[in-house]
Amino acid sequence: MCGIAGFFNFNQNTENKITTLRHMLTRIKHRGPDESGIYLSKNIGLGSVRLSIVDLATGTMPLSNSNKSLWIVFNGEIFNHIELREELLAKNYTFKTNSDTEVIIHLYEEYGPEFLNKLNGQFAIAIWNKTKQELFLARDRVGIRPLFYTTVGDSFIFASEIKSFLEFPEFSPKISAKALCEYFTFWTSLSSNTAFENVLEVPPGSYMMINTISKTIKSYWELPIKKPNEYEFHTVKEAAEEFESIFTDAIKLRLRADVPVAAYLSGGLDSSITTAFIKKVTPDSLRTFSIGFTEKDFDESSFQNTAQGYFKTQHSSITCSPKDIATNFKDVVWHSEAPLLRTAPTPMSMLAKSVRDHNIKVVITGEGADELFGGYNIFKETKIKHFWAKDPQSKYRPLLLKKLYPYIPQISKANNTVLKLFFGYKLTETASPIYSHLLRWHNTSRINNYFSKDYKEATKDYSPIAELEKQLKTKLKDCDYLTKAQWIELNLFMSKYLLSSQGDRMAMANSIEGRYPFLDHRIIEFCMKLNPDLKLNGLNEKYLLKKVMKSKLPESILNRPKQAYRAPIQSAFFHEESPPYLSKMLSEEKITEFGVFNSKHVNKLKNKMVLNKQISEIDNMAITAVLSTQILYDLFINKSIPKLLANDLVILTKTIIDESDIKTN
Questions:
Q1: Which of 2, 181, 320, 479 is catalytic?
Q2: For a surface tag, which of 84, 90, 368, 523 has the fewest beta carbons within 10 Å of its beta carbon?
Q3: Per residue in 192-201, pLDDT tens?
Q4: Measured distance CA(352)–CA(365) in Å, rounded
Q5: Which residues contact 62 (CB under 8 A, 6 or more apart)?
Q6: Identity of the highest mean pLDDT range in 12-26, 564-578, 650-664
Q7: Is 191 in contact with 176 (CB distance < 8 Å)?
Q8: Is 527 a known active-site residue?
Q9: Which of 145, 146, 162 is CA-nearest to residue 198?
Q10: CA 277 to CA 271: how far, in whole Å?
Q11: Do the Cβ atoms of 247 and 551 come closer than 8 Å?
């Protein structure tokens, strides 16, 4: 696992190019503390910081093909690199390393961009074609590994994280009002947008070609969309057999490493399944890690203890308090590089640090199972609302919704009238491609009311919900209710929030590589072929998984009520021991100075939080959104980050200057 950065068409002398690239890499050295290297030629600079996991001895980057016409830096893992190496050896390719990086460059040499379809992995790739003077960038199918780009003058720059751009001359970031409007609706941005104007991400499942004439983006993989007449599995037995076969192989591939591999064990179904399959593939001792909470409403420690006792793993657990969240939240925003509406990434960062403190570099996790197997309450909510919409005046159908949110008193204790007011928004618009999320986004978008006059003016004619509905009207036509909802969760929430703010960024902030067997593209393609009843049977989520794991897990875990992963907000940000930066970022002075929010509205929300009176979920999301955006502005726009000193800079273990192709000014 690594971090990469580079530039194309940067007209500076060699010394300045080296300094710039070294500074860019230093900002992301947490992604690769073991080694770093650069390659420079006339029009290109490529850099890498490396977390050594596969081929510890000879896998240093940048790396070239045999005749040095292609150069690569790479962030990620290609899990089937052994099989692909055999294919290339049969075609008479030779290798000087045992790394998956060298496999990639020879595959590109042989097949061009089509090689991406052969990869089973998680990756961000940059390859320079010296002969064509062309840069190739690519990202894995579902966006597990990040890859951003922007332009400064005539220069094109890219990196694993946006903070690298802060070290490029004349890069001046600006918060995008339009993107904030999207974040405060969807929890993320649409398309390739980020929170910053003119800073974009390479879309998941896509590649770019950049030269002096053009920049082109092409898709090589999309989430499969199946209509009801295209389902391939109709019985539990045949679906279970197929899942077990694919998932076992996905686990085997993700256990490949030249360092120990551990697993998260949260006490939920997903992590218990991954742990069970790991133990099935390799019965050896397994290290597992979990996190609990001092506040019982968020804590799952009892289930974690049950799972650990059942699997007999070598287990380590830490506990997160509201104070811990407040203390670490600023760093979490720095690594997320985006507004946040939840504090949930903070405990994930603490958990990753615990893994690193135990000298582990790789951890297997259960992300993706909820999205693929109907695990979220929003899927159940959508099913109930479709049922309710057939008889909108029913007194009994909306009562089913009370079962979904026992941890939200306003819902669990609500009467029929309140439920209709809360959940009845656009109830009968079931034909909408985004029906499943209309209510949630409508509620979340209230956060936009906290915008300042200038930001409201900048977004007054823009409706993110209408924009997305227009985009998906044709794409999701004739799909069943669950496929539509899953498409949204997988393409928006999972890729751009869950895998980013809670996945890659929190793990790599602590130099930890997360691996996700449920996100093996074969599992994804299998799940999208399933009849919805095999995923959500009645209101029984993850139906197929539970059938597969019957008698293979403790009953208390197999059939436990779904508990959404959450973390404290109000108690974290408003207590006597809150760190000074919190009150500073929420002060009227800073709110006014940054100009994103209306200080009177924010003050009113702060007072409500302090008094602890009838605080809603929207209130909690709003205060988190305001605080995280203020921190983001301070770090990236005000550049309140410490300047890099000589002692901070990465040590270049490999420096290649292509004298045959370089122009020294």
A1: 2
A2: 90
A3: 999 999 999 9
A4: 11
A5: 37, 38, 39, 46, 47, 48, 71, 72, 73, 654, 656
A6: 12-26
A7: no
A8: no
A9: 162
A10: 10
A11: no
